[in-house]
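Researcher: Going back to the complex we discussed earlier. I've cleaned up the inputs and rechecked each line, so this should be the final set. Can you rerun the prediction on the complete assembly and write out the structure?
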Amino acid sequence: FSAKPKLDAAAIDQVEEVLFTSDIGVKASERLLGALNRRVAAGEATADEVWPILREEARSILAAHHRPLVVGEGVTVILVVGVNGAGKTTTIGKLAARFKAAGRRPMVIAGDTFRAGAVGQLEEWAKRVGCPIHQGAEGADPASVVFSGLKAATEAGADLILVDTAGRLQTKAPLMDELRKIAKVCDRAIAGAPHETVLVLDANTGQNAIQQAKLFSEVAPLTGLVLTKLDGTAKGGAVLGIADEVKVPIYFIGIGEAVEDLRAFEVSEFVEALF
Amino acid sequence: AVRKGFKNAVHVFEGKRELTEENIEEALKAIRLSLFEADVNFQVVKRFLAAVKEKALGEIVQIRIKDGGKTLRASPGDVFIKICHDELEALMGPVDTGLTFVQGRLGPTVIMMVGLQGAGKTTTAGKLARFVERHHQKKPLLVAADVYRPAAIEQLQVLGKRLNIPVYAEPGGNPPDIAERAVAQAKADGNDVVIIDTAGRLAVDDLLMSELEEIVARVKPHNILLVVDAMIGQDAVNTAKEFNDRIELDGFIMTKLDGDARGGAALSIKEVTKKPIKFIGLGEGMETLQEFQPAGFADRILG
Ligand SMILES: Nc1nc2c(ncn2[C@@H]2O[C@H](COP(=O)(O)OP(=O)(O)OP(=O)(O)O)[C@@H](O)[C@H]2O)c(=O)[nH]1
Ligand SMILES: Nc1nc2c(ncn2[C@@H]2O[C@H](COP(=O)(O)OP(=O)(O)OP(=O)(O)O)[C@@H](O)[C@H]2O)c(=O)[nH]1
Ligand SMILES: [Mg+2]
Ligand SMILES: [Mg+2]
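Model: Rerun complete. Updated structure for the full complex:
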């Protein structure tokens, strides 16, 4: 490199390789490169400032919507959604433990009435955490289990209710309709619920993450994300593409399979690890 | 929006009467974007584009030699599309969906499912058991060797019950022992195929990868299949390479292709390991396993 008015093709290719292999994607990479080129053209940047500038731009994309999950004083219902295998049930276990340690009275609702062993899995987590669980009959309608669970929660004095749902691919209309119904039923059971709708996203996910965020938000407006499996080698760069589309914060990251493997999302820390 | 890439590429040739270096370059740019949106690995995209460019330029030369510079009989767009499809199919390799089965005293045939957390191993183990039963007239035994994940054993047992296929389990047991004892039980009970479901694990988790190596050492699987989620991004190559380096894979199963993930990782994992994709998962039900067909997949990746 040298302080040219614009990055040359070879330099752009080098930058793109790093950005694309972090799953940052075409559109978000264009935005980062655009910011870089503007700085270079304005004579504000030299060769060795490429990466700090790109990181700064990535930080600003994420900072725009960043805020921690703040749970109010009263009853809070958190609806947890996402595609199959993302880490919803495990994340609910971790969140229940975190809220219990913070002095709340959590409860979990086994809204996945479909998958083999789903209720048993959440039961195991509830046992580990030491919190009540509400479940329905096998194959019961998920919305009715959620409704009765929310009614039972208020009676049981639970003030932090985590609703587990079955994994579903966003292209499956009947399953997305079911989710829309579950969200509505939350409000019928407890006015204003769900107070949070969290999309759980696997950090290994490529560009499909953007479609996931968009379509899930259409049936159950998202308030935040949890990015799981960041203890692996995948960078989770797809969230840069999501940020502009769905404009919600990343509340937590999952960094393992144990109950304590949940951390509040930190913008700078994440971007430093990204590229 | 994701489908624009390939259409843009073909659009370059509309109204054009011949392939030129310029329109080839322009079309390749559009393809490049489409492939990245499909999660194909960066280096694999580079190699693919280079191969297509070479073939397309070669086509120009061919035409000039054959027809003395007259126009193509097929439209340049069609010629270009065909080159892309052929190159992509070539990269995805020949059809190789066979499983290794052993007979009689060499048996039972052992199949081991491995992969990252949540990829679909347990569900696919059930599907595969049903598949070998129906398509290969086998008498499979499912083995619940995931002792870590809450209710993993229960999950496989529920699937086994639905399929009327036995499940070997030892809650709290040690996976290599479980696998070995399961094979012994299969021999005793006349099961000719043993399908081992293992716990999801990171390729970089040395302890758990050693556990896999131990299972392999004990029961010498005839088929080791890496289960990969269709929505996996660029890191697929690292995962595939690491699993393949530690325990020699026989092939892949790509799951969740019933969604709209393009599945470009399929190209990358084949390229980096040279191992074939044997099956694809198209749903959560036990009947949703299919043998992999490169031709249809090329369309999906190109978009
Ligand atoms: N390494 C790692 N594994 C995780 C993390 N979060 C979840 N997992 C694992 O991912 C797998 C899937 O997790 P689940 O909680 O069952 O995912 P889910 O979204 O509820 O899955 P479905 O209900 O089937 O859609 C399990 O093996 C978890 O232990 C994480 O942060 N890191
Ligand atoms: N739509 C769809 N869902 C699938 C497919 N294969 C598996 N699933 C779902 O993906 C989720 C994860 O599947 P599992 O079989 O639990 O995955 P796993 O690899 O065994 O997970 P771990 O044991 O935690 O590593 C479940 O909700 C399955 O029903 C598929 O081909 N299509
Ligand atoms: Mg779950
Ligand atoms: Mg499993």
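Model: Worth noting: The mean pLDDT of chain A is 95.
Researcher: Good, that matches what I expected from the previous run.
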